[in-house]
Write a structure and sequence with these properties.
It is a single chain. By secondary structure, the protein is mostly helical. The protein has one domain: ADP-ribosylglycohydrolase fold (Orthogonal Bundle), CATH 1.10.4080.10. It contains 18 helices and no strands. The longest helix is centred in the first third of the chain and has 25 residues. The protein is globular, with a radius of gyration of 17 Å. The two termini are about 15 Å apart.
Length: about 325
């Protein structure tokens, strides 16, 4: 049980630390601009150092909905929980352009659609991110993977259901693949390759092809920095928050880091583009495999203090939810 708690906590901590480290570098868009300004980013930087974005905060609102029911929730139940949640207030909606105080506008749209009576299994069609395979659904799947740990195919099915609250189309399929990867990472005897296999086997043909391309391109490289030019040439999408880019990039960093959370997080944070999501995803998957002991303890403490999180409690509570 102690080892299981370490890996569940490592999953949540890896997400939060990666998200916070990648938040300021995302705004620079390109790894070349990051290098020009900072060299290599290996700690929290910027005015709000240690603050997370909607990746972590929205993940915890899904966890809250699950813990209220003490079971996995449906899309309808998630929107019923979100529609009066203080994170979706008018004030935060009007400031959704500011990542430190609000969610991305698409997330507000689905919550406010729920207030107007649209059921959760339909709200995803109203999110503009559905037009370009957005990653909002995939990036919040940590609670799903935790609940269905060791059962990737069941995690994928649960992810497909709840993801409809956020998106439609390929974004829902991306959530399936990502939840399966998390569940596989929390399996007994998990390896880097078994986790990659779970992601690919539960992915859509488009996502599977994107993952294979990113892994193939990164194969000759041995570190998370030198691979960036090759990935930029071959694997970018027109929109930075496209799940067909963020998930393959996170998996490439995860494999290059051989499942080490801090190395994977550094790779994501220094990648640019949707750096907070890539670093958070790479961090949570690596943290689930390696445990909380592999997360920098000072950074873990700081991210909890800055954001007011009790990730220890979330980890312990989610572990008790039955699948």
């Amino acid at each position: 049980m102690e080892k299981e708690h370490s890996r569940i906590l490592g999953c949540l901590a890896g997400l939060a630390v990666g998200d916070a480290m990648g938040r300021p570098t995302e705004l620079l868009f390109s790894y070349r601009r990051i290098e020009a300004r900072y060299g290599k980013v290996t700690t929290f930087i910027g005015k709000h150092a240690g603050a997370v974005t909607d990746d972590t905060r929205l993940t915890l609102t899904l966890a809250d909905a699950v813990l209220e029911k003490n079971r996995m929730v449906s899309a309808d139940e998630l929107i019923d929980f979100w529609k009066w949640h203080p994170e979706f207030s008018w004030r935060k909606f009007l400031r959704s352009y500011n990542r430190s105080v609000g969610f991305w506008i698409g997330e507000h749209i689905v919550a406010w659609a729920g207030r107007m009576g649209v059921p959760g299994h339909l709200t995803g069609y109203l999110n503009i991110s559905s037009l370009f395979d957005g990653n909002e659904a995939a990036m919040i799947m940590a609670p799903v993977g935790i609940i269905f740990r060791g059962r990737p195919s069941e995690a994928a099915l649960a992810a497909r259901e709840v993801a409809r609250a956020m998106l439609a189309g390929e974004g829902v399929q991306a959530a399936r693949a990502w939840a399966a990867a998390i569940a596989a990472a929390l399996s007994e005897g998990a390896t880097v390759e078994s986790i990659l296999d779970a992601a690919r086997s539960n992915a859509s043909p488009k996502m599977s092809a994107s993952i294979d391309r990113a892994l193939s391109v990164s194969e000759p490289y041995t570190d998370v920095y030198s691979v960036r030019p090759a990935l930029y040439r071959c694997c970018l999408r027109p929109i930075t928050i496209d799940s067909l880019e963020t998930i393959p990039m996170a998996l490439a960093m995860f494999r290059l880091a051989d499942g080490d959370p801090m190395t994977a997080i550094h790779g994501g944070a220094n990648f640019g583009r949707d750096a907070d999501t890539i670093a958070g995803m790479a961090g949570l998957l690596s943290g689930a495999l390696s445990g909380i002991e592999a997360i920098d303890p000072e950074m873990f403490v700081k991210v909890c203090e800055v954001n007011g999180f009790d990730l220890e409690d979330y980890a312990a509570s989610l572990a008790t939810v039955s699948a």
